[in-house]
Amino acid sequence: MIDLRSDTQTRPTPEMRAAIAAAEVGDEQKREDPTVNELERRAAELLGQEESVFVPTATMANEIALRTLGEPGDEVIAEENSHIFLAELGGPAVHAGLMTRPLRCTAGRFTPEQIRDTVRVTDGTHVPPTKIVSVENTHNASGGRVWPIEEIEAVVATARELGLRRHLDGARLMNASVASGVPSVTIGGHFDTVTLCLSKGLGCPLGALVAGSGELMATARRFKHLFGGAMRQAGIVAAAGVYALEHNIERLAEDHDRARRLAQGLEAAGVPVDLEQVETNFVQIDLAPLALSPKEALARLWEHGVGLSMTAHPTRLRAVTHLDVTDEDIERAVELIPRALGALAHA
Ligand SMILES: Cc1ncc(COP(=O)(O)O)c(C=O)c1O
User: Fold this and answer.
1) Ligand 1 pocket at CB < 6 A
2) Ligand 1 centroid, distance to 196 Cα (angstroms)
3) Per residue in 22-56, pLDDT tens?
4) Which of 16, 151, 205, 257 lies at a 20 to 30 A Cα distance from 345?
5) Residue 259 backbone class (left: φ over 0; alpha: ψ -120 to 50; beta: rest)
6) In whole numbers, what is the pLDDT of the chain averaged over residues?
7) Mind listing the domains of the chain with CATH numbers?
8) What is the pLDDT at residue 122?
9) pTM of the predicted model as reported, rounded to 2 decimal places
10) Cα(171) to centroid(ligand 1), Å
């Protein structure tokens, strides 16, 4: 099976497993785990922040960040299909009591004007105050799209002017950084809080970080405990993170190259693919011209030995490259995907 469903499908390599086996550990809740401490130090540096806090998942990192930045009744603005709105089970409402204001956007990116048009100014009676703006980079639902740094700077400047706190869901920030050539420290440094996921392209079995100022991270640590995320000998897992930050960032360029080759091969074979959209490790296939339902198409692909997955868009599927996908897999997928979809399209 060529598993292109998601970059969450990576398995730890023998080298990563060796790092896990050799990890020095301690009580993480007491800040006595040297490997967790080392991971948090390195991640903070990479994300342009004073401190970072190790948590089990990027969902928890986002939820802790939002809870840290807002109070119940405050509003958070984000793109309508952003992960915090679409895929965290209403967590911003449940954990932080936030009102959500979704923005309709192209490629997952909104503009300073959209922020200005959306922000509610309140005198403290009746109207809920808009307090947080959340950017997702790369943007999952739009197909791993990257925010140009100038656009980030523009929305951040407007958010600052309007007194909004700024969160970056950078679950795939390293993909954005490698693809754009803009250092992650430059991107992350613009925000109050930053999420980074270790278990996607970076290849760890689990783990994520939330980063911010020392003051905000002191609050984030409280919420981590409150949410049940404070761990014990977590260095066993953090060791994979330290390994990944050393070895698996630059190589994300290989995943991006493979995604591009896959997209080009599929397009040449007549599969509806938008090459413009392929900026990182996602390729989106539009089934509308093929008159196939996503369910039918996924079943046919699976029978042919290729795993793809659904997207937020009703007629688009996605293929995601990652650490466990080889050049040979791409060559094979370029043959198998058109065969699986074409067989139906021309039946
Ligand atoms: C942009 C984004 N943020 C957060 C997450 C949450 O990651 P996890 O499933 O590890 O909690 C994901 C997962 O796909 C994501 O794509």
Assistant:
1) 57-59, 62, 83, 136, 140, 169, 171, 197, 199
2) 9
3) 999 999 999 999 999 999 999 999 999 999 999 99
4) 257
5) alpha
6) 97
7) 13-247 (3.40.640.10), 251-345 (3.90.1150.10)
8) 87
9) 0.97
10) 6
